Amino acid sequence: PTVSCELKLIMETAAEHERILREIESTDTNCIGPTLRSVYDGQEHGLFMDKLDVRIRNHDREIEKMCNHHFQGFVDSITELLKVRGEAQKLKVRTTNRRLQDDGKDELKQCRVQQRNIATTVDKLTYYPALLTLEQLEQTCLPRAGQYRFCSIMAENIPRLRTQIRDTAMTQLRDFLESIRKHSDKIGETAIKQVHAGHTATHVHALLTAQELVDFSPVYRCLHIYTVLGLREAFENYYRKQRRKQARLVLQPHSNMHETLEGYRRYFNQIVGFFVVEDHVLHTTQGLVNRAYVEELWELALSKIVAALRTHSSYCDDPDLVLDLKNLIVLFADTLQGYGFPVSQLFDMLLEMRDQYGEILLKRWNVTFRQVLDQDNYSPIPVSTEQEYRHYTSQFPQQDPELEKLPFPKKLPFSEFVPKVYCQLKEFIYACLKYSEDLHLSSTEVDDMIRKSTNLLLTRTLSHCLHYAIKKNVGLAELVQLIINTTHLEQSCHFLEEFISNITNVPPDTANATKLYGTSTFKDARHAAEAEIYTSLNAKIDQFLQLADYDWLAAVQGGGTLTASDYLVDLIAFLKSTFSVFTNLPGKVAQTACMSACKHISTCLMQLLLDPDVRQISLGALHQLNADVRECEGFARAGPVAGFQGDTLLLAFSDLRQLLELFTQWDWSTYLADYGKPTCKYLRVNPHTALVLLEKMRETSRKSNVFAQFRKTDRDRQKLIDAIIKQLRNLIAQHRA
């Protein structure tokens, strides 16, 4: 019976040890202290340690066997790959690699958990017996031994031994805190790489976890010892206080962080590393840190992170760096979100940065557009071959069936800046699209963002650049080409609409979709160029008119026909040459410019007649001016530009023509008799104008008759002029009343 009882006891002990070992192997946390207490409550501690050593050796053999098994498969696979290296491009290496790793992933993970738990068990078994022995000595053995001196000495030393164990554990904890401070950067970098690998659908080999980078056993050991000593709360407070201090240091960015992407990367790595460690401690200890504590830390961190990023990103004026920073923030946010931390504020801040990114893009494209416009030759593009023609039409959606039919060499109607500007508009749209990626936005939101940014580019940046080019290129030929260019760009706007829709998958006719303002931008630029043409043309006409040198006291020449003044002949030649270039202008621009030029000439010639500084005008001078007006009328009648009906262009000179005919024909009786009637021959002659000119002629007559006042014909002419002046004044007075 005694043997039977002993055998039964051995079997029960073995079964209990086996149960404990299975629990250690299957537990996925480090909180296995309570499990081990039963080992020391029994009397077979040595037997359990032997059994544990055996189990460790068995697992080591299993791990080695499994690794050898998979390693041989890996070696065989590599050997096969080497044999078919010539066909390597056709192999799906990535898929094979992932399958090889996936085959042993779960088993390796379970083995690592078991190995880790066993290591933690051994570590705790080292300290726990010492504390248990001290407790048994103090509470059980020493009181039974009586009042011996050695008992009192041992009783006095037990608190000191406890303090020594506690201090040793605390020293190791401080070393641990220093270790995780140093390793936060590496831990964070590893965690972010894992998320990046998921984003790019690639596999990153041998990425270590936080537990593999940092030895967490000191914190578990210290927690366990302080718990046994009844000091758990003090330990928790100390740990949290120290980690808060480290958090403040981690969250303080370097002053030059904004200068390079690496500065931002180090900042994010350290923060991720800090919270990955806290998350690990949260899930592997019972209450050392809790969810409320971690969330409080994260709220503090989030506000400081957002503030730091707002400040430092505002210094950046490089769109490429902003784009890289945005991608880094997305990885940072996705990494922490994977650990359960809320990151919506980070994505809100990224939307704020989108506006800053857009402004930086506008500045860069302003420089680009200026360079394109400054370097343009403002001449139609010559193409000699089909290849050249296709090169330009691939850059710009040119659709002209008539031009297609023409043989080579031929010319595209626009200059180089048209395809260059169009390509830059597309590049800007691509740059906007890059920022919107991975922001968890809907396709409609992305489409709206791109369209609004493109509208800013069109209405602000490109519009200003075009107006700058219009003011800078005061040459008429350049202005004509600018009008042609903006017309073609205006016609291409619907292609830009389609381009945006194709990359965002949002139809352009979607309800509430933002429309591009390209048409109005190019139309406004064209109108500005047209106005500049009219202004520039008139300025050029003024330069010719400044050469006019009329002899206002010239006598009437008898016989022959007067020829036009030299300055006017040159002016007409210039206008003919200029309007020959206007044939390619769209719409009625050429007609408007021609009519404007003729009206300006007529107005200037009229002003010469009425100039207050010209006090005397002879009939001979009027005859010369009449010859000049005939030259202008001949130009108008010849039709310098197409599109005018009949003698429409002659109307520009009708005021001057009727005034000169009235004076050269001296047809005052008709004028005075028919004034005010719709059928009046001199309907466009204003009586005020006629009076001013007649008074200048009277002054001329008076000066010339000083020494011939007794000639009857001159006296009669003087009296006639005075009479007409009197009648004109009466006429003006009557109509004023």
From TrEMBL:
InterPro entries: EXOC6/Sec15, EXOC6/Sec15_C, EXOC6/Sec15_C_dom1, EXOC6_Sec15_N, EXOC6PINT-1/Sec15/Tip20_C_dom2. The keyword Transport applies. GO terms for biological process: Golgi to plasma membrane transport; intracellular protein transport; vesicle tethering involved in exocytosis. Keywords: Exocytosis, Transport. Pfam families: EXOC6_Sec15_N, Sec15_C. GO terms for cellular component: exocyst; plasma membrane. Residues 345-696 form the Exocyst complex subunit EXOC6/Sec15 C-terminal domain. Residues 51-110, 118-192 form the Exocyst complex component EXOC6/Sec15 N-terminal domain. It comes from the Eukaryota. The keyword Coiled coil does not apply. Component of the exocyst complex involved in the docking of exocytic vesicles with fusion sites on the plasma membrane. Belongs to the SEC15 family. This is Exocyst complex component. It comes from Scophthalmus maximus.
